[in-house]
Design goal:
CATH architecture of one domain in chain A: Roll
CATH superfamily of one domain in chain A: PDZ domain
Helix content of chain B: 10-25%
Mean pLDDT of chain B: 89
Low-confidence stretches of chain A: 1-19
CATH class of one domain in chain A: Mainly Beta
CATH superfamily of the largest domain in chain B: PDZ domain
Oligomer: heterodimer
Low-confidence stretches of chain B: 1-23, 206-213
Structural class of chain A: alpha+beta
Distance between the termini of chain A: 87 Å
CATH class of the largest domain in chain B: Mainly Beta
Number of helices of chain A: 10
Radius of gyration of chain B: 27 Å
Number of strands of chain A: 28
Radius of gyration of chain A: 25 Å
CATH architecture of the largest domain in chain B: Roll
Mean pLDDT of chain A: 91
Number of helices of chain B: 9
Helix content of chain A: 10-25%
Largest interface: A-B, 33 and 33 residues
CATH topology of the largest domain in chain B: Pdz3 Domain
Strand content of chain B: 35-45%
CATH topology of one domain in chain A: Pdz3 Domain
Largest sheet of chain B: 7 strands, antiparallel
Strand content of chain A: 35-45%
Number of domains of chain B: 4
Amino acid sequence: MGSLLLIAMVLIPAPAALAAGMSHGFNQLLDAVVRIDVREADFEGGGRRFEASIGSGVLLSSDGLILTNAHVASPRAVEITITLASLERVSAKLVGWDHWTDLALLRLDMNDVKKRRLKLTHGEFGDSEKLYAGETVYAVGTPFGLTRTVTRGIISNSNRYFEDDNGVDGYETGAFNTWLQTDAAINPGNSGGPLVTEDGRIVGITSRAYLGANNLGFAIPVNVAKVIVAGLVQSGTITRSYIGLVPKALQDFEAFFSLALDTGMLIDSVDPGSPAARAGLAGGDILLAIGGKAIDGRFPERLPPIQNLIASQPVGANLTLTIKRGAQVRDVTVVTEKLESSVGEEWVLDAWGFSVRKVSRTFARVNQLPDDTGVLVIGIQPGFPADTAGLEAGDIVTKIDEKPLTSLDVIKAAHAAYIDKPAPTLFEAVRDRRISLFILKP
Amino acid sequence: MKFIPGWNSAALSALLLLCGGLARAADIPALWAERVKCAVAIEYFTETESERRTTVAYGTVIDNAGTIILPPGAIDSHVPPSQLKEFKIFLPGDPVNATGVYLGQDAFTGWHFVRAEAKVRARLVPVTAFAAAGRSPVPVLDEEVWGIGLRPLEEDFTPYILTSHVALIQSLPQRTGEAQQEVAGPGLPVFNRAGVFIGLALNSGTQQYMLYSQMNRGGAPVLLVDVEESSLFHLADEVLPNLGRIPKNIDGRPLAWLGADGLEPMDRDVANFLNLGDQSGAVVSEVLEGSPAEKAGMKDHDIIIAIDGKPLPVFRPNRFVTDYVDREIERRHPGDVMALTVLRGSDRVPISATLGEEPTLIREARRKYFERIGFTAREFVYGDAIERRIKVGQSAGVVVHYVKPNTPAAIAGLQPDDWIKEIDGVTTGTFAEAVDQLTSIEADPFRAEFVLLVSRGGDTAVLRVKLK
């Protein structure tokens, strides 16, 4: 009787729910979607300024974890305020971020939540692998600040490949995953909100849309997010391996390289100084297998999984690559390195009136600098010593008082010394490969 | 009648002044009419793979052999001389033109030299005919100076007169006069009231006018640099001693070479900081591989502070110090010894460099256009190796100079400045070998595609060029 009643309870209200509203799961999901207000430091003006933005997110657990986009909440954030479905506001902290997948994880101030006895509802992950083109999906978020807006559409493509040159505030993104494409209306502010199926299961995190196009929106598949969330919960960061290969789809090149279809990946370029370069690999080589596992990079859509396979190796591991050059096939071993962004750490030197970003190894390679010495000037405050001396955004300061800037600490120390005892300071900077000297004086 | 003492003398001086004015009015037109004969207009074409561009410039006749000098900006020095075609010489106000031959550019003055065909030479008068014997007079402040202007081609380059007064004389680094208004067409001579040659007007680049498009009335203004009249002129003593620098060949060789690249001016604050006092300096960004500077022991980051024991002068603005150093090199010859003093850290280091011959320039590089593929390949030269930061000896192959839109090369994604490292999997050898290989690909009617490996900004790219 009891079980029958239970079945009846589930069964009978269901048609009613369809007629009168969405599924229970969907309603629960709605309660898990939050608005995120972020105030973040902006270094590009040369001073310490703050910018405010609004995004969306979804609660993942009863202990206050919120999943959103990396471009909503980054380490630059100084204040994160969450508006729950109950309209109550609670502050949150960044647990970690991963710009490569454009995902970030936040945690609510649980002491505050408990103190105020706020009730948290969290969403449930679905399976993005099972999505099919034409399947109905809903995007929930805060477009233009309109809290908990639901829009409806379909999956337009479940395996979209695109490269985003703009990345996440200048940070690289997208190399390791394909995207879900949807025609559910996605507007600014939707970022970080969930894309869900009719039962309210999260299948993606809406992230971007073509501006000026009609309903071409993109979301990170939740199966990618699951891995990132687990990694961020565990260590607050996602570590990837790097060997320095730039891939290209083999499509149309098979005959030239005497390859069967669906075999191997074309190496378009090898980063100078990278593990692959040291192992003798070069552009025009074919990568046939990684660790003995045959790979297939015939189409662009097949490249992100290969990139991800390399990236998910442990850092410092020996990786055997099977390489074809001309008619020769050989195995080479590369030792993986930690993948680094080209965007280094940023800092403001208030007394001098400029802001900098450390030159990273990747930035140095991309810009063909001899090494990673120096800091990139990203902003200048008008009227301050750096501006008066003629320093410009884009300059790379390599030395201060003849001391090479091997780390951000060197310039921070020089700046502190200047504040302590202001005196003319000699800067050496490189602009378009030209060396200039500047005196920054009080 | 009341006698007013002194009235007569005052009237007399007024009359004298009037006569002076009249004498001047009668005088200058005659001087002008005579001096117009040393001014010409030049028209030439720049012929590239895809277009022909016309350029008009003004020049001054310098000798009885019909040699004409054009200011540095009259011809883009990156354009290979082989692309400069059909030099025409127009005498002011005369619709008929004569042909001219391009002789090349002199590195020191920057002048381009053109020689008029024999039949018009008799109608030309060299500017030297109006020069002072010995040192040329240097105009004083507010002195009246005048020059020749030429109307556009549609008006047969009708000559006219421009008159102004001297506002300032500066070293930039040449001694340069600045008039209060435009005083001559760029490249044309400037005279004093007595008709003595006192300077040569240069491409000013300083006069800008708001110009509104005829096609888009009420639209945004188009900012235009006036190239037809200039208020700047190099003083005669910067001009006359250099008239003999007629290039011996179209490439302007020999070219003296030091190989201290990327010179950057040092400002006064830096000089003070380095206890250099009231002198100037130039920072060497890069000592080029295999260059005379490298052989003489110069290092990156050295600051050149003296040449031949003479401290580098201070210029306003200080950026002209690098032009000064460049000119010190350019006025010498390969084989000359150049004594420099550089500041390295806190040490003054003497450098004695034997100048060499400038390596092949990009404008001199051999080129070949492949019509069917749709691009121009150019020889890889010294500057290409420097730009790409590779060892000079390792370099080989060809660089893409031009890609014609919508051709197989363009569709494949080939871009200008791509360095072709492999053609069909074969490492590119010399320019001649690469040309042979590309020629045979292009000549093969059955060839459907070929593959290039190019280097681009430190990365490589594999490109498939579809011919069918």
